[in-house]
Amino acid sequence: MNEQRITTFFPGGNTSFGFYSLFDYVISNPKRFYVIKGGPGTGKSTLLKKLANHFTDKRYFVEKFYCASDSESLDGIALPETNTAIIDGTAPHVIDPKSPGAIDEIIDLGQFGDTNKLKKYRIEITNIQKQVKELFNLTYNYFSLAEKTKYHIKQMQGLRKKRDELLDFKKYLTDNLFKENKVSSFNPLKLNDKSNSSARYLFASALAPQGHINLYESLFKDTDYLVYLDDDFYPETDQLMQDILNESLDRGIKPIVFMCGLNPKQIDVIYIPHFNTACLRSNNYHPIIDHYNTELINIRDKRSTPTHLNDEENISKEQFDFLINRGLTLLAQAKNIREGLEEIYIDAQDFYKVDQIEERLIDELIK
C-alpha cells in the first residue's frame, strides 16, 4: 500500500467576516514552535516547501497548511510525530511567541534583506500595499453580500422537516458515523490529536485567487466511510451538522471540524478520527468525491421551496454566484499586483542565508 504521508489544510480563509484565522488549531501543546517573519518574496513559502519535501523524503508525516490568498503558497507545516511546527506569522495572520525561547522562536527572514535597496522603492512599496488593501476590502464586501444572500435563500427555504424527522436523520447518521469498521484504513488525519481542546477546527476549502479550492479529495480519500448531506441552502443541514458535532463531544470523541470558506461559523465537514468516518455537505461548491464507501442523504425534495418564491430563489442563487465570482476576480487582481512587491523584495534578499536557516531547522524540528 502506498501510504499517504502528506495532509493538506487551509488554516485561514478569505471569508464574509474578512480574513478569518484558525491558526490556533495548527498545533496544540507543541514541543517546538517556530514563527517566520519577513516581507513578501523573502523566502518564507519556499523555505516551508523545502522543509516539507525533506521530511516527506525522510518518511515523516507532514501536515501542510496552504495560504488562502495564494493556494500555491505555504503558510506552515507541522510534524505530528515530533509535535513541532513552523508557521508564517506575518499579516494578516500575525502570530507572536507564547513561550519565547522555551518552546517558541521567531525566525526573521527580513534581516537578510538589503535595506538600502528597499529604501529606493519605498514609494512604490507603499502604493502597492495600498492597492492590495483596497482590493481585499472590496473582496470581503462581496463575500459579505454573498453570505447575506445565502441567508436570504435559507429563509425562503425554511425549515421543512419536523423535529421527529430530524431526530431520525440524526440517529441514522450517528449510528453509521460512530461505529467501528471491519477493515480500518490508515488515515494521517488521526495523527495530530495531542490537544486538550474538545475539537480541532480548520478549513478544507478556500476562496482564493486561483478560484474556489477544495481539498476534499486529498483529505478524505483514506476515510472508511463518507456520508454526504445533499445541501441546497437547507437550514436542516446546519442543524444536523451541529447535532453530529454535539454527539461527538458528548461521547468524549474529539472531531476535526472543517468550517465553510465563506462563513467560518458554518460547519461543512465533521471528521471523526476515532472511527475514520466523515459527514460532509454536498452542493455545487462541494461535489461528491470518488470514494469506495460513500452514501448520499437526500434531506428533502429539491422543489420544496414555495411555488410563489421559485423565481426569487433562482435570482438569489444567480446573485450569490455572481458575488462569489466577483470576489474571486478581485482576489486574483490583488495577487497579480502583489507580485510586483515580491519582485522588489526578492531582488534585495540574501537567499544563501535563508538556506542556512533551513539547515538548522531540519535538525531542530525533529529533536
List the SSEs and their pairings.
Layout: E1 6-9, E2 12-15, E3 18-21, E4 32-37, H1 44-57, E5 62-67, E6 70-79, E7 84-88, E8 104-108, H2 115-119, H3 122-157, H4 163-177, E9 200-203, E10 205-208, E11 211-214, H5 216-220, E12 225-230, H6 235-250, E13 256-259, E14 267-272, E15 277-282, E16 294-298, H7 310-348, H8 351-364
Parallel strand pairs: 1-5, 4-7, 4-8, 9-13, 12-15, 12-16
Antiparallel strand pairs: 2-3, 5-6, 6-7, 10-11, 13-14, 14-15
Helix pairs in contact: 1-8, 3-7, 4-6
Describe the fold and architecture.
The protein has two domains: about 5-115 and about 350-365, no CATH class; about 160-305, no CATH class. The protein has a six-stranded mixed beta sheet, covered by helices on one side. α4 crosses α6. Helices cover about 40% and strands about 25% of the residues. It has about 375 residues and is an alpha/beta fold. The chain has helices at about 45-55, 115-120, 120-155, 165-175, 215-220, 235-250, 310-350, 350-365; strands spanning about 5-10, 10-15, 20, 30-35, 60-65, 70-80, 85-90, 105-110, 200-205, 205-210, 210-215, 225-230, 255-260, 265-270, 275-280, 295-300. It is built from eight helices and 16 strands. The chain is globular and about 70 Å long. β6 (about 70-80) and β7 (about 85-90) form a beta hairpin. InterPro entries: P-loop_NTPase. This is ATPase. It comes from Natranaerobius trueperi.
